[in-house]
Amino acid sequence: MPHEPSELGENTLASAALYLAAGIDPKKSKVFVQSHVPAHSELAWLLNCATPMNWLERMIQFKDKAKKQGDSVGVGLFTYPVLMAADILLYQADKVPVGEDQRQHLELARDIVRRFNAQYCKGNKFKKLCKAQGVPSRPTFTEPEAMIVKEGARVMSLSDGTSKMSKSDPNDASRINVLDPPKVIRDKIKKCKTDLFKGIEWDNPERPEATNLLNIYLVVQEGRTKEDIAEEVKDMSWGEFKPILADAIVAHLEPIQKRYNEVRADDEYLQSVLRDGADSANVIASQTLNSARVSMGFTKRF
Predict the structure, then answer these.
(1) What is the pTM of this model?
(2) Closest CA to 79 of 66, 67, 90
(3) I want to staple 220 with a disulfide (CB 3.0 to 4.6 A). Which of 107, 144, 155, 252 is the partner?
(4) Among 189, 157, 187, 163, which residue's Cα sits nearest to residue 175?
């Protein structure tokens, strides 16, 4: 995807600060910059060599974005699902939290695991390679499973209830950004697309925007259920519901935004978290990468 080099560094640090602000504990879950762990790009290349091109041609996200970008679409977008597979497989993850829109990419990762392990991790030749380089003669990768939450697994665009909400959408009004000020959030909700039906209801295929806004309302309020929200809003007009929804989003994001500002202001702390995370990730990732290299027959590194 195109990017502005002068903004990449700050965007990277801002993303890391958001993870911490949202509640990720770096003592339990390592946070690091992927480009600080070279094994990601190297394993992605090895997996590219083992992945049939027609598997990638089936990826829906690539097809959708390629239509929008036309001739300017890059190879990196085409092979991104293989990089995503490498990101997962390096750490032998058996369960991966993903949104519904990423399910196809995770299934691709599972296919890659089966193909790689079947091609390179069987028979006496494989065992001899492993023994010669001191690597356990077990399948190189763990086959991951998707963890998808029941509610809010896929948040849709504020301008089109049938399209995914995306940070890459050129229309900023189509999404709620975590750092949007309260006034911006309220303006976006006020102007978001709705319909002319009476009342507000869930899961009516003719009302995708209603379902989407109700899903957002549900996920930003801990302890609420679909049933009690449906009862609350069933007789409301959009003019009545939108301010209530906006207030709920603002209240949900307020503590995250406050914590973000604290983390981002402490550059020494943020850099130390990323440095420690990369050190820990490099240890695990390099072991998996070495196993993949041995399985494929590469010579031992000095």
Answers:
(1) 0.86
(2) 66
(3) 252
(4) 157
> How wide is the angle at C-alpha 118 spanned by C-alphas 112 and 120, nearest 5°?
95
Q: How confident is the model at residue 1 (pLDDT cuts 50, 70, 90)?
A: low
Distance from C-alpha of 152 to C-alpha of 234, rounded to nearest angstrom = 20
**Mean pLDDT (whole number) for 247-251:** 98
Write out the catalytic residue numbers.
65, 164, 167
Count of Cβ atoms closer than 10 Å to residue 24 Cβ: 15
pLDDT, tens digit, 9 for 90 and up, residues 273-286? 999 999 999 999 99
**Taking residues 112-121, what's their average pLDDT?**
96
As given in the structure block, the two tokens for residue 280 are 């820990």
Percent of the chain as helix, strand, coil, to the nearest 5:
60, 5, 35
